[in-house]
Design brief:
mainly alpha
């Protein structure tokens, strides 16, 4: 699951419009137009390809209309969502600025953490949302997913959990 797919699923789950997406990106610190947001919400062609198959042997469709969403762009959106839902947090004097996501880093753990904050979810809420999507997870496993990278009990969040979490969110918020 790539970042464009995460944005598409999150937009659907939270029932957001293009104008709201632009506002959320702006709150996160990125000035985007509705046209750019629409291009971010187009699935990448390589998501559909299996075993490097070529769908267009003549190369007519080489020009892709989507914009690849980088980790920094996804994090900007999630930060904007937190500000929209919870308000801006004042930084404490002397507190160092937190480093952003690296482009080769798995964004699924950050997705879970930031959505937990933005939507004011407890661990039990996340477990219930995942259960709604058909995934059973223990509190200990969830705790490992929410830990800081480098912690001895940290566990990388796979696409299975992220995909089903977004699916469960859609069921919860869209009915």
């Amino acid at each position: 699951m790539d970042n464009n797919d995460i944005l598409i699923r999150l937009r659907y789950a939270l029932n957001l419009r293009d104008t709201q997406m632009v506002q959320i990106f702006k709150l996160g610190g990125a000035e985007l137009t509705e046209e750019i947001v629409r291009k971010l919400l187009i699935k990448s062609k390589d998501t559909y390809r299996y075993n490097d198959e070529v769908d267009d042997p003549d190369g007519v469709g080489d020009k892709e209309e989507n914009i690849k969403c980088k980790n920094s762009m996804l994090e900007t959106f999630l930060n904007g969502l937190i500000i929209l839902k919870r308000g801006k947090q004042d930084s404490k004097p002397g507190e160092p600025e937190k480093p952003g996501l690296k482009n080769n880093e798995n964004p699924n753990n950050i997705l879970l953490k930031k959505l937990k904050i933005a939507l004011s979810l407890s661990s039990e809420d996340i477990i219930d949302i995942l259960k709604e999507a058909g995934v059973i997870i223990t509190k200990g496993e969830l705790s490992a997913l929410l830990r800081k990278e480098g912690h001895k009990n940290y566990k990388e969040c796979g696409d299975k959990y992220a995909r089903n979490f977004l699916k469960g969110l859609a069921k919860k918020y869209r009915g």
